[in-house]
Amino acid sequence: MNVFIPKHILKEKEPLHPLPPKIENLEAVAAQNELNALLKREDISANALPSEEKKPIVLLLHGYGSSKWLYIEPYFGTFGWLRDYHFRPKPKSFGWHSKPPPSHMYLPFAYSISPILKVEGLFVRLMRKRIDVITYSQKEPFGDINLSANELKEILDGIKRVYGERRILVVGHSRGGICIRKYLEQNKNELIEKAIFLGTPHRGTNLTNLFFLKQPLIKLLNESNLKRFWDITGRRRVTSLKPEQLSTNSKFLLDLKDREQTPNVKYIFIAGNCATYAHIYSWKIEQTVTKRTIKHIFSTKEGDAVNIKNNEGKKKEKVYHWLAKPKKILTIFEGVLLPEFAQGDGMVSLKSALYGEADEKIIFNVNHEELAVCEPLERKILKELTNFNPK
């Protein structure tokens, strides 16, 4: 049995660098630059218009170790784990030969992973629908949530100064949702009217147990080869890790009292119930054969072996149709006993994502990464924007 991956199966043209959203309105560009200058930043992306005083703003917060590219170019904001797990590869034909295809046509790997799912970011899709959107990259995406909550306060204060007292729908993915809750607990809210929490671990996640070696991980995350996965721009740096804040039933999460502080904010919990991230296939090179023997190769049907005769009528060796056939050998994160996989989105369990008091609780059949890019989320945001209270 020959088990290899044909080269062309692995060829995926992955983008090398993220591209900023094309904001063509000069007023929006000027306001974006003003907001960045006011807060001494460079990473805020915003298409909002200060002149649209009655128009709500959508503020997007990314999750643990991610960046604003989650909402602009998802490939760079999901560590490359946004993959088409619905994809089923078809057998690859290598034509008719007497021997298996030459070994140089293959790579010495026994599997092929699901291809990258190239989708357009939520920021771009909302912007196309003339929605005012703002997003940014948190300075401490691995660190203390208190620091990220303070950073959110600075962003909201800057929005108020540049765009006025606009009504805001804030969307937080994973850890970003906890940052929103911490902000609402600590501050008198004047802007946020609705909050959507995407796969937010309100009661933590067991995956934090993977971070027991903090100092080696901090050094590793700052290495250039790994850093490109969580910070493609290279401008941020990991200074601390605080996974214990997101551990199951941590004191930090149990002590949050955000809902009592802001009863007028509408809470919407959205969870994913698909833990599939990718499939891994083995590839077996097979010769398809039948007992049928004919004279000409071009008159055969797929699956036939061919005996070719020369001009003297002497038989030559058989020629076969060679195929590389896939066989699924593993589904990543499938069948694992942890609740995050058994009943969750692969990172956060359903129970944790839907725990607590909320005005609405929704389940999408997607995994943790897809929650931030899926069409049902876009439709939900558009619906909530039409139901904003009059200013």
What are the salient characteristics of this protein?
Rossmann fold, 27% helix, 6-stranded antiparallel sheet, 14 helices, 7-stranded mixed sheet, 21% strand, 391 residues, alpha/beta, disordered N terminus
Protein architecture, described:
- A 7-stranded mixed β-sheet has the order 3-8-4-9-10-11-15, sandwiched between helices.
- It has helices at residues 7-10, 26-38, 69-72, 74-77, 122-128, 145-163, 175-186, 214-221, 224-230, 251-254, 258-261, 339-342, 350-353, 375-386; strands at residues 2-3, 5-6, 45-46, 57-61, 92-97, 106-107, 112-113, 132-135, 168-173, 192-198, 266-272, 279-288, 306-309, 315-331, 360-364.
- The radius of gyration is 26 Å and the shape is globular.
- With 391 residues, the protein is of the alpha/beta class.
- Residues 1-12, 290-304 and 308-314 have low confidence and may be disordered.
- Helix content is 27%, strand content 21%.
- The termini are far apart.
- Helix 6 (145-163) crosses helix 7 (175-186).
- Strand 13 and strand 14 form a beta hairpin.
- The protein has 2 domains: 2-82 and 117-278 and 332-386, 3-Layer(aba) Sandwich (Rossmann fold); 92-114 and 280-328, no CATH class.
- It contains 14 helices and 15 strands.
